[in-house]
Design brief:
The chain is mainly alpha-helical. 61% of the residues lie in helices and 2% in strands. A 3-stranded antiparallel beta sheet has the order 1-2-3, with no helix packed on it.
Length: 255
């Protein structure tokens, strides 16, 4: 009798059958190894877990990320940006005028610093209004934004309805004037003076002008939570307060 070994029919021990089972030397099928099946299930679970964590992270991120708000046209930020541009422009005009009427190096340098710094700040505020999609010209009288309540409500009793403010002549007459602004007569006089006389009038007018600018900047800080606008307002407060002290010293030296 001929004995047929495992190789006689061309099948080795451990060959894989059509169902991916293992065929032993007696022709018995065995299922796939349990360790391979567990590894596959583990990989699938890890992938699903990673996807779930990603989705949860995106949802939490959307919920917790602060939503940036754009100031509206009647806001303190918009009013400040418009009115401070006007305020800065007069300072620039006075600075350029005195530079032409004096040879004093300190006054000329001060005038240059004022013109350049306030020109840059005015450009920044102009750009903000464009970015916010707001008109450069206010629909309400100048400085009415300073009648809005402060953040701590300490001046809430002075708040007005901004919509009605634009609609009545009485509120237009009652709106505050822009602090520190030189009169047309003062500006005309400055253009007629030269030397020390021009310097003294310039310093007198610019000290008052800076004091008004600081007042406006402080009013904005009391009414706004916009980080960029508040940062600029604080810069104005710091720089102009320092220049006020310096100009008072220059004026005293010319008295």
């Amino acid at each position: 009798m001929t004995t047929v070994g495992p190789e006689a029919d061309g099948t080795d021990a451990g060959d894989i059958d059509a169902d991916d089972g293992i065929v032993d030397d007696r022709g018995h099928d065995h299922p796939p190894a349990p360790s391979s099946s567990r590894a596959l299930r583990l990989r699938i679970a890890l992938i699903l877990g990673a996807v779930l964590l990603l989705v949860v992270g995106l949802v939490v991120g959307r919920v917790t990320t602060p939503v940036a708000t754009t100031p509206d046209t009647l806001s303190a930020e918009a009013g400040f940006a418009r009115d401070m541009q006007v305020h800065h422009q007069q300072a620039i005009d006075m600075a350029l005028t005195v530079r032409d009427e004096t040879t004093d190096p300190e006054i000329r340098q001060l005038a240059y610093d004022i013109a350049t710094s306030q020109g840059q700040q005015a450009g920044q505020m102009y750009a903000w209004l464009n970015l916010w999609g707001l008109p450069q010209v206010s629909p309400v009288p100048q400085m009415t934004w300073m009648t809005l309540p402060t953040l701590d409500q300490s001046q809430a009793e002075h708040g007005m309805n901004m919509a009605s403010m634009a609609a009545t002549d009485a509120t237009i007459a009652a709106s505050p004037t822009m602090p520190g602004m030189a009169s047309a007569a003062d500006l005309a006089k400055l253009q007629t003076l030269t030397g020390v006389d021009a310097e003294k009038l310039f310093l007198t007018l610019m000290i008052a002008h800076h004091q008004g600018g600081v007042e406006m900047a402080e009013a904005l800080v009391a009414r706004s939570t916009d980080a960029d606008v508040v940062a600029l307002a604080n810069t104005i407060i710091t720089a102009q307060t320092s220049e006020i002290t310096y100009m008072q010293q220059l004026l005293a030296a010319r008295s």
